[in-house]
Specification:
33% helix; alpha/beta; 8-stranded parallel β-barrel
Length: 333
């Protein structure tokens, strides 16, 4: 299990140029939470969900993705992972006080048509369908909420296939990357309504993972409901204005970050970063922290000033495992 402490200042001062070390005062006043969220399920070579939870690196694991919905079909894709052990793994992670969420949506680049690791409500129809999703009507939003409740959450209606058996995830994450923005606010309200079945606790949590450009047009209306307790803002990918590893740098990220934290003061805002864009070579050894010096000394101190800073979200477990990214970031988050 990786250490939760930041690397020693003496060690980093020896490794970093004076201008970087001069930023130490800012880093020292930052307010880390220790919360690290990871997306799991996009590559069979990342290992099992149980293995991810047993690393001790993560406080939340997000299963991705539930990627076909809205037209009477309900289909998820785990990119080659066998479903046979996922239910037991969910329970194992929860027994370690690790929150397990199911993410709905995804994009064409991250949603694969692997033969294994997918679940199906209507096999015949799904064989003919693309990996796609949308909510064409209010009725479809209600139907998707009903399927999520009975197939993945606390519902147990007879005849509804539960791909993870009797295991229930702790909530639903919205990762909506294409299609119309319509009716996702209604879906959020339907899902939040199921909390009436939990006594004395919130059993159905809502989170969202929007793109970093503010606002995210596909999720803006849903987020305005105020029902999302966490927002994992994705500061990675193709948006050069706010993608940390794609040209935006600290300034671009902080400019967008301040908009997100101001617009949603009641939600915990997570800094979403991609391990594959970190600059750490695959299989790197030695002091990996040196590859992340500007994250430690420059970006994190700035974003952690926000009162509703929640932690770091890492995309994704496969790249994280190859680079050792979270093993370093965990102590800074």
């Amino acid at each position: 299990m990786a250490s939760r402490r930041r690397p020693s200042l003496l060690l980093l001062s020896a490794l970093l140029p004076p201008v970087a070390f001069a930023l130490l005062a800012g880093a020292a006043t930052a307010k880390p939470t220790g919360q690290v969220t990871v997306f799991w399920g996009r590559n069979a070579n990342e290992g099992t969900l149980r293995e991810a939870c047993d690393t001790g690196l993560y406080t939340t694991a997000v299963i991705s993705f539930y990627s076909i919905f809205g037209h009477g079909r309900y289909w998820g894709d785990l990119s080659g992972h066998s479903l046979s052990t996922v239910g037991a793994d969910i329970k194992h992670c929860q027994s370690k006080n690790i929150l397990v969420l199911l993410s709905i949506g995804g994009n064409n680049a991250t949603t694969s048509r692997a033969r294994k690791g997918r679940w199906e409500e209507d096999l015949q129809n799904n064989r003919k369908s693309r990996s796609d999703y949308s909510l064409p009507s209010s009725a479809s939003a209600a139907a998707v909420a009903d399927n999520l409740w009975n197939a993945h959450l606390g519902g147990r209606r007879k005849g509804v296939y539960r791909p993870f058996g009797d295991a229930a995830v702790d909530g639903i994450d919205f990762y909506i990357d294409h299609g119309s923005p319509d009716h996702y606010d209604e879906l959020a309200r339907h899902l939040d309504g199921y909390n009436r079945f939990y006594r004395g606790r919130k059993g159905m949590r809502l989170t969202a993972s929007p793109r970093c450009g503010f606002p995210d047009a596909r999720l803006e209306k849903a987020l305005r409901t105020g029902l999302f307790e966490r927002i994992h803002v994705r500061f990675y990918g193709a948006d050069s204005k706010c993608s940390y590893g794609n040209g935006a740098g600290t300034w671009g990220v902080v400019e967008a970050w301040n908009k997100w934290t101001a617009a949603h003061p009641k939600a915990q805002i997570y800094l979403g970063l991609a391990a594959a864009e970190s600059g750490i070579p695959d299989g790197a050894t030695g002091t990996i922290a040196v590859y992340l010096k500007y994250l430690y000394y420059d970006l994190l101190p700035k974003v952690q000033k926000a009162k509703n800073y929640g932690g770091v979200m890492v995309w994704d477990r496969f790249a994280d495992k190859k680079t050792g990214y979270s093993g370093v970031v965990q102590g800074w988050a």
